[in-house]
Amino acid sequence: MLVLKKFGGSSVADLDRIRACADRCLRTAAEGHQVVVVVSAMQGETNRLIALANALVRPEADPAAARGHYVEAAKSCQDYDRELDQLVATGETVSAALLAMAIGDRGGRAVSLCGHQLGMQTDQRHTRARILQIDEARIRSALDEGRIVVCAGFQGVDPDGNITTLGRGGSDTSAVALAAALKADVCEILTDVDGVYTTDPRIVPQARKIDRISYDEMLELASLGAKVLQIRSVAFAKKYGVRVHVRSSLNTTQGTWIVPPESAMESVVVSGVALERGEAKVTVLGALDVPGVIATVFGALGAAGIVVDMIIQNVGHDGRTDITFTVPGTDLTRALDVLAGVTIGGEAMRVETDRNIAKISIVGLGMRTHAEIVGQAFQILAAEGINVQMVSNSEIRLSIVVQERYGELALRALHRGLGLDGDRA
Fold it and tell me: What is the DSSP letter of 108?
């Protein structure tokens, strides 16, 4: 078997943990398997490097403002994002070299490879690059020599030879992409949690670990803020059929398998419930109720790169209508700036906002054939005196917006009422 292991930042946080990772790799190799490893930067290292960059170019500014200042103040320098990629990619390179050394110190044979050495070719979008192809020849050559191959995650190289990075959580994407290219038998994501849970166990202690979950369900949970896996890595796994095993790096217990849909999964109506904070509600008041208004509003937001989630248009009266939608809270100011520049029929738009909202989402393959789950969810919330502000649904997801102060109460009530509570022991 070819086993690909990915160790997150917490798993390589210090030298003792790096040694533990080396031991784990050597045990797998001793079982007769070929081993490829992808590593993140040591815990906190990426944040430290970004903070250094921001402190250097403009100490008082946020990262976006610092970027603009850097470009204006240093015309002779290349793009800030290019230099930022050069800087932050060193975190993963350090982890890879240290782990290879630890494996060698324990009698194994290993080689570390950074992005261009392992053949990770990307486009030219610095800080958010997309993988174009992987030339795995050097990795296979090292495997044929009996080596454990330790790859720096999160990074690649563009057609001009510049270092690029894949965005936050990009080591997950590196790992799954390499597993697909190498046709690995399994891609193990090893981290400080022991699998995917039915909800956040810090909020709901009765949350249960899920043994198996489909790609589509995991995509939904990842898009809702579940931090176990980066959403792009799950999309890669689904596209190429990579079997992903999320498990703890601190023990050898079975974690959660992320796999294609299985018939048994349909019998589980709800797999998980997620709480997402940090969103904002925007209402455009009294817009003209004429064709093209929706296209104008959301076309402008889309052109600015602002992702809109839930959308409701009220029934029009007297030629007017209200349009309500949600955006990430971090994009609210930009969204308002965009809307301030949009006119409909020569009229500026009146806008109201609300940052004090929370979104609770129910996810499960079984929801496809269990329409009653919607009514049941509303009954559960009503019994707790929680008012529903907005609703959207897909084939396997129901999302509900409530006031933020009721977010955790709603999460616990739905988790219990939908039969997800269990004994975690």
Answer: -
Written as six digits, the tokens of 155 are: 């990074």
- At 315, the amino acid letter reads V
Residue 185 has pLDDT above 50, yes or no: yes
Residue ranges in 58-153 assigned as alpha helix (H):
63-73, 80-105, 137-144
Distance, in Å, from the CA atom of 372 to the CA atom of 261, rounded to the nearest integer, reads 22
Q: Hey, which residues does 39 pair with through a beta bridge?
A: 7, 152
Q: What is the pLDDT of residue 74?
A: 41
- Other Cβ atoms less than 10 A from the Cβ of 85: the count is 24
Q: Do 131 and 177 touch, CB atoms closer than 8 A?
A: yes
Neighbours of 274 (CB within 10 A): 22
Identify the CA nearest to 13 among candidates 111, 91, 115. 91
For CA atoms 406, 409, 415, 417, give the dihedral sign.
negative
What gap in Å lies between CA 290 and CA 287, rounded to an integer? 9
Q: Which residues pair with 122 in a beta bridge?
A: 131
Which domains, from first to last, does the chain contain? 2-192 (3.40.1160.10), 279-354 (3.30.70.260)
Contact assessment for residue 393 and residue 345, using Cβ atoms and an 8 Å cutoff: no
The whole-model pTM stands at 0.84
> What is the predicted pLDDT for the residue at 104?
97
The long-range contacts involving 222-225, CB below 8 angstroms and separated by at least 24 positions, are 224/274, 224/276, 224/359, 224/361, 224/363, 224/399, 225/274, 225/275, 225/276
Buried-state track 188-207, b at ≥16 Cβ within 10 A, e below 16: bbbbebbbbbbbbeeebeeb
d(CA 111, CA 130): 25
- Which residues pair with residue 212 across a beta bridge? 257
Q: What is the pLDDT of residues 368-420, one digit of tens each?
A: 878 888 899 999 999 999 999 999 888 899 999 999 999 999 999 999 999 99
Give the separation between CA 35 and CA 342, rounded to whole angstroms: 55
